[in-house]
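Notes from hallway chat w/ T.B., transcribed later so I don't forget. T.B. wanted the structure written out for a chain they're using in a teaching module, and asked if we could keep both sequence and structure tokens in one place. Agreed to drop them here.
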Amino acid sequence: MAFEYIVGIIVAIVLFLAIIVLYNGFVAKRNRVQDAWAQIDVQLKRRYDLIPNLINTVKGYAGYERGVLTKVTQLRSSIITGSVQQKADANNQISQALKSIFAVAENYPDLKASANFQQLQTALEDTEDKIAFVRTSYNDYVLDYNNAIQQFPGNMFAGMFHFTRKDFFQAPPEAAGPVKVDFSDLNAPAPGAVSGPGTSQKAPKSAQKPT
């Protein structure tokens, strides 16, 4: 009887220690996920804050930027307070908008040569690279965490301690398709431009040297 009692105590201690190890493992994995997500969040907001400056620089060279700024403004709530998937979708849409702006800029040599434009383009591309890098780390940590709470024996205790599945940060399927660039706004003359038979459209002098 005493032997069975001792065995029971040992089993209970081992089980208790196993639960502690599992719990601490869940916490460590969840903290890595949260830390990686915080880094993504910082880069998403940094890129969002750079875009109005880019629009300001492009302004005057084409009417295209107006719709882009409106679209980006509409995405603000998703970037600031949205869920993981909402932020992923907003991030993809902003990426498409930026690619369109840079494609439009190919038609304006003065704009491409602008130091301000080049600095903003470099900063945005650098931010995009950082987002891609931290997104990879975040998704790796999410996979590790999700496996831990879904595999045996972790799945027996994860729900008890309110450890729930995390979402991956990924672009929707259409993001893999070609970028659609709308040049329709470029058919209208830029403010101050002169058009007519035998004449070409030119950006106003004030826009040729953005400040």
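Follow-up for T.B.: The CA atoms of residues 56 and 210 lie 9 Å apart. Might be a good example for the class.
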